[in-house]
């Protein structure tokens, strides 16, 4: 059980966040940039969605 814990929690999670694994040594901002890049088409709908949610909340309160 101890080796399973080391493999899953330490090697697969902590080590991947803190060190270069499998030759990938990009900047810490890499994943933030990737997240924005791949969610960009959906982010175009965000302003309208927030507006509609605000409008619906205002109708319930008023």
Word description of this protein:
The mean pLDDT is 81. The protein has a domain at 28-62. The protein is elongated and about 60 Å long. The longest helix is centred in the first third of the chain and has 17 residues, at 2-18. It has three helices and no strands. With 62 residues, the chain is an all-alpha fold. The protein has helices spanning 2-18, 30-43, 46-61.
Order of helices and strands: HHH
Extract low-pLDDT stretches: none
Helix-strand makeup class: mainly alpha
Helix percent band: over 70%
Instruction: Give the strand content.
Output: under 5%
- State the helix count: 3
The best one-word shape is elongated
Instruction: Please give the radius of gyration in angstroms.
Output: 20 Å
The overall strand count is 0
Main sheet characteristics: none
Q: Mean pLDDT score, rounded?
A: 81
Annotation keywords:
62 residues, mainly alpha
């Amino acid at each position: 059980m101890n080796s399973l814990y080391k493999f899953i929690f330490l090697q697969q999670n902590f080590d991947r966040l803190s060190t270069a694994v499998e030759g990938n040594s990009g900047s810490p901002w890499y994943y933030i940039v990737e997240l924005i890049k791949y969610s960009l088409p959906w982010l175009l709908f965000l302003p309208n969605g927030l507006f509609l949610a605000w409008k619906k909340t205002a109708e319930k309160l008023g």
